[in-house]
Amino acid sequence: EWLNSQPGGASVALRKLVDAARHANEGADRVRQAQEAAYRFMSTMAGDRTGFEEAARALFAGDRLGLEAHSQDWPTDVRVHALRLAEPAFGAS
User: Fold this and answer.
1) Would 79 disulfide with which of 23, 40, 50, 74, CB 3.0-4.6 Å?
2) Nearest to 41 by CA among 87, 1, 3, 8
């Protein structure tokens, strides 16, 4: 009943609720997507490298310096790309 009593009806009300939820979760979604993308790349390209486990923990903890430190022994292009993928996970800093 409440949905049907809203201006524009149920369809408009539901669309507004979905849009509000999407905007409320944008930051968290961006962080999660960056973490997942970086982790997939890291596990494929550096999963057997020294420091991988620690680097992965740092990634999911939002610890940019930890990720940088634990990936120092990786090939430069792999390390640089992993850091680039992970960048949105660290927010504005």
Assistant:
1) 74
2) 87
Q: Using CA atoms, how far apart are residues 88 and 64, in angstroms rounded to an integer?
A: 11
Listed by start position, the domains of the chain span 28-90
User: DSSP string covering the chain, please?
Assistant: -HHHHSTTHHHHHHHHHHHHHHHHTHHHHHHHHHHHHHHHHHHHHHTTSTTHHHHHHHHHHT-HHHHHHHTTTS-HHHHHHHHHHHGGGG---
The series of mean pLDDT values per 10 residues for the chain, 93 residues long, is: 77 80 77 96 97 98 97 97 96 60
C-alpha atoms less than 13 angstroms from C-alpha of 21 in its C-beta half-sphere? 6
Give me 91's structure tokens.
């927010």
